[in-house]
Design a protein that fits this description.
It is built from 18 helices and 23 strands. It has 584 residues and is α+β, with helices and mostly antiparallel strands. It is globular and about 80 Å long. The protein starts with a helix and ends in a 26-residue tail after the last helix.
Length: 584
């Protein structure tokens, strides 16, 4: 309550001169620099004063220096630059381009001031926390950037009751708009001995992941991040600060749980329920090589049957990839099992390969490691495991900041293509496995076809499934055993790099052919809004299924003039592709 009281004076100062009621259909196009209606120098100075000097033009860092290459491979460095995003672009879709001005918000009052200013002056407004959107949602030239990076506080609660609610208090964690999952995990798990369901990549932002639905390595055990949300503070297009939960403004609260980031307002704080921490977290690695295409298809069939019988439960998550070179690459995690129990679970698959030495090799690559769950994000423990993490090497960086080695190549990446599809658990039934295996094998002839087994919630505990049904995420996730992801990326465009467009288009065509082959087993499958094709057809149905009409009603109520517009976000069909011109 004290935090809300402290905000009062700042909100009044920021909003008094800038606040104005929303006028329906008052603007057809957002204004650009130099165009009539672009704010004057005095206008910008007023915003700078209202935000205590936190407004500035966006400038790009010098990317030609000797140390630029190493810096651009560092996701923490990229996140610290207002003019950069974690992806540098997407083929034939977008390239990272800086906004005209940025408000580096440090308080809700700063957010209110920026929202009001953008609305009154008819500006394109872009919101960025950590900047991980594959679709360029935190990127738009000629815009005003509202950057919440510095609002990164994380507070653990022993007993939290949502405002206006009479429910019993629960253990929870509150995260500011710019907080990353690494810091949330370190506060909740390393510090408090609890677990919060978040994302797998350490530098992904809490706010963006939750608003997109949110899946992490252990979602099969604990559900989606959105389903754990119990309260949010959000600034809507009218400049009002709203605290939403199950007891007040329930429709907006529901929409924030998977309805897409940057769409309904600027979330400034999120509070998520935490869970009892398992004794162990662990990982399994295994790559099996089939020596012929026929043997490879048999291996895929054996894995599908093995997974359905042994691993289709809350203990197991992450991914398995069918590769064009007839290798089955397994990179999975587990929770709540001992190392011996995890190893025992894989014996049937290893035994299958051992029994056919003329057809398979790679069984000796098997590795299963368990560590105390409390140390899973603890660099003091992880530093003793070679090749697992990369610490932020910059002088003065926090010694506890790191990223997983497997995410290194994603820093600044340029996407050739990215596709996803939820695969229904009915495909695991014995009568349907052949259809799944045929499609997976066919997909692998074109490109690397991965099943992210933690991003389908079928097999999760009933409580997790029920909570997921009360989110805006496509209900197909509840019945899916996996999210299939097929994509490809290349070197960064930062520092003057240019892609080999001919090669990139060939790869993109292979990705699309691979997904088309896989979708034969699941025609009409939905897709995950945070990880999807920029060119997704029928995106309203694919991302949200039957929830879209309800989301559209929330959008019309809280943002009737589309101040918050992102590519393929709710209501974006009324706007041009660049978000500047209203077309409907």
């Amino acid at each position: 309550m004290k935090r809300r009281d402290v905000l009062g004076a700042g909100l009044a100062l920021a909003g008094a001169a800038l606040a104005a009621p929303i006028a329906r259909a008052a603007a057809v196009s957002r204004v650009r620099p130099g165009a009539p209606g672009w704010p004057s120098a005095a206008d910008w100075d007023g915003l700078k004063q209202a935000t205590s000097g936190r407004l500035s033009p966006v400038t790009l860092p010098d990317l030609t220096t000797p140390d630029a290459k190493s810096l651009l491979a560092n996701p923490f460095y990229i996140a610290d630059q207002p003019g950069l995003t974690e992806s540098s672009g997407f083929l034939d879709a977008w390239r990272s381009s800086p906004s005209a001005y940025v408000v580096e918000a440090q308080s809700t009052a700063d957010v209110v001031a920026a929202v009001n200013f953008a609305r009154v002056h008819n500006l394109r407004l872009v919101i960025k926390g950590r900047g991980h959107s594959y679709l360029g949602a935190s990127n738009a030239p000629d815009s005003l950037l509202l950057w919440t990076r510095r609002m990164d506080d994380v507070t653990v609660h022993d007993a939290f009751t949502p405002a206006g609610s009479t429910v019993a208090p629960v253990q929870a964690v509150s995260c500011g708009a710019g907080a990353m999952w690494l810091h949330a995990y370190q506060a909740v798990t390393t510090g408090a001995g609890r677990y919060v369901q978040g994302g797998g990549c350490t530098t992904v932002g809490v706010a963006g992941l939750v608003q997109g639905g949110g899946f992490g390595s252990f979602s099969k055990g604990f559900g989606s991040a959105a389903a754990s949300l119990i309260e949010a503070e959000v600034v809507t297009a009218d400049g009002k600060v709203r605290v939403v939960n199950h007891a007040q403004e329930r429709e907006l609260f529901w929409a924030l749980k998977g309805g897409g980031g940057g769409t309904f307002g600027v979330v400034t704080r999120l509070t998520l329920a935490t869970h009892e921490l398992p004794t162990n977290f662990g990982a399994v690695r295994l790559t099996l090589h089939a020596k012929s295409a026929e043997a490879y298809r048999r291996l895929l069939a054996r894995f599908v049957d093995f997974y359905a019988a042994n691993l289709f439960n809350p203990h197991w998550g992450e991914q398995v990839t069918a590769r064009p070179d007839n290798k089955l690459e397994i990179s999975m995690v587990f929770q709540g099992l001992t190392q011996d129990e995890a190893r025992a679970a894989w014996r049937p698959l290893i035994a299958f390969a051992d029994a056919n030495p003329a057809d398979y090799e790679g069984q000796n690559s098997f590795l299963a490691v368990a560590i105390p769950a409390r140390h899973f994000w603890d660099p003091a423990m992880l530093s003793h495991l070679p090749g697992v993490i990369v610490s932020d090497p910059r002088p003065g960086a926090a010694p506890t900041d790191f990223w997983w080695t497997g995410n290194t190549n994603e820093a600044g990446t340029f996407w050739h293509a990215y596709t996803s599809a939820w695969l229904p658990a009915s495909l695991l039934k014995p009568a349907n496995q052949t259809r799944l295996v045929d499609a997976w094998f066919a997909a692998s002839r074109h490109w690397y076809a991965s099943f992210h087994l933690n991003k389908g919630l079928a097999g999760a505990p009933d409580a997790a499934l029920q909570a997921a049904r009360d989110t805006a995420t496509n209900p197909a996730v509840v019945d899916a055993f996996a999210l299939a992801i097929i994509g490809s990326d290349g070197k960064t465009l930062y520092g003057g790099g240019e892609p080999d467009l001919a090669s990139a288009h060939v790869i993109a065509a292979n990705v699309q052919a691979s997904m088309a082959a896989l979708r034969v087993a699941a025609p009409g499958a939905g897709a995950y809004v945070n990880e999807c094709d920029y060119f997704q057809a029928d995106w309203q149905r694919a991302f949200w299924g039957p929830n879209y009409p309800r989301l559209a009603r929330v959008k019309r109520r809280y943002d009737p003039d589309g101040l918050f517009t992102v590519h393929h976000g709710v209501g974006s069909e009324a706007w041009s592709a660049d978000g500047f011109t209203r077309t409907a």
